[in-house]
Amino acid sequence: MYEPDDLFVVETPAWHVEPTGTSISCIDYSQDGALVAFSNQLGTISVASSYDGDVKRTLEQANSTYPITGLRFHPSEDSLLLSTSRDGTILLYNLPRSEVVNRQRHLGSNLLSMNIDSFGEVFAIACADGSIRIYDLENLQRTKALVKMTAKTATTQTINIYSLVFHPEDSNVIIAAGWSDKVIIWDIRTGNPERSIAGPHVRGPALDIHNDLILAGSSRDKKQLELFDYGTAKKIRDVSIDQTLANGSISINAAKIARNGMDIIAGGVINSGGGPLGSGGPGGGSVVQAFDFTHGKCFGQTPQMQGAVTAAAVSPFGSGFVVGTEAGELACHMVRLKPT
Known about the structure:
Elements: E1 7-9, E2 15-17, E3 27-29, E4 35-41, E5 44-49, E6 55-59, E7 68-73, E8 80-85, E9 89-94, E10 99-105, E11 111-116, E12 122-127, E13 132-136, E14 141-146, E15 161-167, E16 170-178, E17 182-187, E18 192-198, E19 207-210, E20 213-217, E21 225-229, E22 235-238, H1 243-246, E23 249-257, E24 263-271, E25 286-292, E26 298-301, E27 309-314, E28 320-325, E29 330-337
Antiparallel strand pairs: 1-29, 2-29, 3-4, 4-5, 5-6, 7-8, 8-9, 9-10, 11-12, 12-13, 13-14, 15-16, 16-17, 17-18, 19-20, 20-21, 21-22, 23-24, 24-25, 25-26, 27-28, 28-29
């Protein structure tokens, strides 16, 4: 791996999509890093080249016009893309044919987030009632429901889950976070939480795991990026925001680790000290910073964008990242080696 001092973020975007007014809540890279999927129009998905932003596929359907809350390329079948919408619509697309090949509908509560396990066997949806539902990816049939019960009342605890990930080596483990200021580690086999991490205030897709280190990004002005040990749930270290570079604190809404473990990207709203947390303050804006995963050192930042950062994805090789905002703006930035 490279040293953090060897890397920098190219400030000029490799490509850019103008704001549409529809918030972007999910972005995903294909397994080879060649394609990026995103949605900045209700019910419509764009699949673009990660190199120049040229749209290769526009996926439209008549099943739902609600915001798309989850997008994932299939881990092993390049032709498949899974999407979920807020109203419970679940669609599996064949990309070469630009058509829906399977569909399902979750009833009872809105869908907030979705993720696929690394083997392409199952996927999980986070529901607005605080539950997590597990589905078989081959036929889109539900196989399990994970519901956290309170000890005193034995009733469902209402928790909005805004981010969830599978353990990359064990599809029986799901890590989820939301407004409860906890990260919960679930075992699908028992249907119970095995342990939890208190503290992180996750309010978007700001949860990830690499080499048994859990990254949690929090919407607050201190300790926004933290790494925890998966086995013990103990905190390992902070990843410090470069406040000098940002000209203020950054309230993190989205965070991601490159699959090869080269870098972390994290984005949110700058609080310059003149307003409430997340307001941006006078002269504030929305930016993404990039960090070396091994040392946690910031090596670059994007220019300010319109609206709060709401989603981000990093290429599998850590060589670039794409960020989206609540205004529907999208930008791709490259990570490069400094010239010698």
